From TrEMBL:
This is Thymocyte nuclear protein 1. One of its GO terms (cellular component) is nucleus. It comes from the Eukaryota. Keywords: Nucleus, Phosphoprotein. It is found in: Nucleus. InterPro entries: 5hmC_binding, EVE_domain, PUA-like_sf, THYN1-like_EVE. It comes from Chunga burmeisteri. Residues 72-234 form the EVE domain. CDD domains: EVE (cd21133).
């Protein structure tokens, strides 16, 4: 494969522009039993016509059920060369565009929550392509899911940096999806700009107040609500600050 083992969740590295937030394309491997046993979210449907899943939890105050519906995603990948066990994990959106049919598999995820997000993805759902662990991290384009979750072959490859000797072919631990390039965003949307809106929305209750890019920074696979996706996408129409 031309770009081996390029999307990772193992070995968190903070984005250079946001050392306090520790945003990273790759996250620290988590073998936490609670995450391992967490259930796959049920499928649903959104007004956009895409299937989605709903995460349900008890509210801290009244015990009432609150539901968050996710139907879009944010995928982090490193656009700059970095060797991991002798393998360059660089994979930019230009690398994706250079692939046959501008399509590739999103392999190498080694975090249980991120894996569960991969397994929740549905055909046709769209995701932001996010450049991480680089000089200026941020959103550069849009991709779509063209194949739903199936076993990640790199877990069985002893030459791969993220070979997992504990995974069995009859019961694979790790999954991947196929994604296809849709388009570049009309402009680069930097992390710093998204963060400014997130902080403002935390104060006034805007759509980015709970965005996982800032609440679960290390996850390289992150869900987005329709409102989060729409707001971030609207930023491409604005002049950069």
């Amino acid at each position: 494969m031309p770009w081996p083992s390029r999307k990772r969740d193992k070995g968190a590295v903070a984005d250079k522009k946001e050392p306090d937030a520790k945003i990273a394309k790759t996250e620290e491997e988590t073998l936490d039993q609670e995450e391992e046993e967490s259930t796959k979210p049920p499928a649903g449907s959104s007004k956009s016509g895409w299937k989605n899943w709903k995460k349900t939890k008890e509210s801290d105050s009244g015990g009432e059920e609150s539901k968050i519906t996710y139907c879009h995603w944010l995928l982090k990948s490193e656009p700059e060369s970095r060797l991991e066990k002798g393998v360059d994990v660089k994979f930019s959106i230009d690398d994706l565009k250079a692939q046959p049919n501008q399509t590739t598999f999103w392999d190498g995820v080694r975090n249980y929550q991120a894996r569960n997000f991969l397994r929740a993805m549905k055909l046709g759902q769209q995701a932001f392509f996010y450049h991480s662990n680089c000089k200026e991290p941020g959103i550069v384009g849009i991709v779509k899911i063209v194949k739903e979750a199936y076993p990640d072959h790199t877990q069985f490859d002893q030459k791969d940096p993220h070979y997992d000797s504990s995974s069995r072919k009859e019961n694979p631990k790790w999954s991947m999806v196929d994604v296809q390039f849709v388009r570049m965003t009309k402009r680069f949307i930097p992390l710093s700009e998204i963060k400014a809106h997130h902080l403002a929305h935390k104060a006034d209750g805007g759509p980015l107040k709970n965005m996982m890019l800032f609440t679960r920074q290390r996850l390289s696979i992150q869900p987005l609500t329709q409102e989060e996706f729409d707001f971030v996408l609207s930023l491409e129409e604005e002049k950069p600050h």
